Amino acid sequence: MHDDFERLVSQNYERIYGVIWRLVGDCQEAEDLTQDTFVNAYRARDGFRGDSHVYTWLYRIAVNLTKNRLEQLTRRRAELLLPGDDGEEAWLASPEDADSLPERQVENSELGEVVAQAVLQLPAKYREVVILREYEQLSYEDVAEVLGYSVPTIKSRLFRARGMLRRRLARYVEL
After folding, report:
1. What pLDDT score was predicted for residue 101?
2. What is the pLDDT of residue 154?
3. Cα–Cα distance list, 28 to 17, 44, 86, 129 (Å)
4. How confident is the model at residue 26, as a pLDDT?
5. Are the C-beta atoms of 118 and 169 separated by less than 8 Å?
6. Residue 83 to residues 26, 45, 70, 80, 139: CA-CA distances in angstroms?
7. What CA–CA distance (Å, rounded) separates 33 from 22?
8. Residue 60, CB half-sphere, CA atoms under 13 Å: how many?
9. Which of 74, 122, 131, 152 supports an S-S bond with 126, CB 3.0-4.6 Å?
């Protein structure tokens, strides 16, 4: 059982980390939440019935933990009346060494940064759909299962998110 769980972690760690990092934009926070995701999964492993794919189950745990953490941070910031930090450096930082892969170099181009910023500025309910569908390339059904909504709701949110992104990125695209 222990070896099986270690295999589960090693097979899914990077993908879960990537989703969380795209949601929070902070490497340390993403590390902490990824670790929390697997701790929670380990504790709930007996409750996993196999009705869905393992990665869908893990994504659901990760997204729920991340939503909760973001809500806590928002409340704490509001309670302390601190001015909002735009977090630009954190959002633009790569979770991996940008020089190691050509794909990362492209992602870190000016346009990649602008797109990443636009996605991060979406309201959470749209951002999470874009990240799971476009970045993680989950099916509509899997995104719906992870987020706990119907497929039509996911499609509607994705449509709206794409419209928002299109408007935000219009000045960067030549027609």
Report:
1. 47
2. 93
3. 11, 24, 17, 23
4. 82
5. yes
6. 18, 41, 16, 9, 38
7. 12
8. 18
9. 122
Mean pLDDT in residue range 122-140: 88
Return the C-alpha torsion angle 11, 24, 121, 99, nearest 10. Answer: -60
DSSP 86-115: --HHHHHS-SS-TTT-HHHHHHTSHHHHHH
Whether the Cβ atoms of residue 48 and residue 57 lie closer than 8 Å to each other: yes
CB atoms within 10 A of CB 43: 9
Alpha carbons within 13 angstroms on the beta-carbon side of residue 147 total 27
Please state, as a whole number, how many other Cβ atoms lie within 10 Å of the Cβ of residue 94: 17
Q: Using CA atoms, how far apart are residues 125 and 146, in angstroms rounded to an integer?
A: 12
Of 47-51, 57-61, 120-124, 131-135, the one with minimum mean pLDDT is 47-51
The phi, psi pair for 137, rounded to 5°, reads 55, 40
Round to whole Å and give the CA distance between 64 and 154: 16
Distance CA 45, CA 62 (A): 14
C-alpha span between 100 and 59 (Å, rounded): 26
This prediction has a pTM of 0.59
Banded model confidence at residue 110, pLDDT cuts 50, 70, 90:
low
